[in-house]
Amino acid sequence: MLELKDGFVLYHGSYCEVKEPDLAKCAKRKDFGQGFYLTTSKEQAESFLRTSIAKAMATGTIEEGQQAIRKQTISASGSCCPIN
């Protein structure tokens, strides 16, 4: 989680921590084009996180056991995929 000087907190709804976003790895056909999406809404990030986990499980990127670990990590940290 990154707290900006003006008080905004930004969240990224992903099942893994992203310390340095690589735009070349970002999907090209998103609503607003290729990019690394952030939100000020923790609830929106959590929704995207659930979608991200479901897609990763469907493609075999993560397994069921890893999903439970991710959820515990998120609960413990109080945020989705903190941006450092």
User: Averaged pLDDT, please?
Assistant: 74
The figure for the number of domains is 1
**Count of helices?**
2
Helix content: 25-40%
Cα-atom radius of gyration:
13 Å
Outline type? globular
Could you outline the blueprint of secondary structure elements for this entry?
Blueprint: E1 2-3, E2 9-10, H1 42-59, H2 64-77
Antiparallel strand pairs: 1-2
Keywords:
2 helices; single chain; mainly alpha
Protein described:
The chain has a two-stranded antiparallel ribbon with strand order 1-2. The termini are close together. The longest helix has 18 residues, at 42-59. Helix content is 38%, strand content 5%. The protein has one domain (2-77). With 84 residues, the protein is mainly α. The protein has helices at residues 42-59, 64-77; strands at 2-3, 9-10.
What is the gist of this entry?
By secondary structure, the chain is mostly helical. The protein has helices at about 40-60, 65-75, and strands at about 1-5, 10.
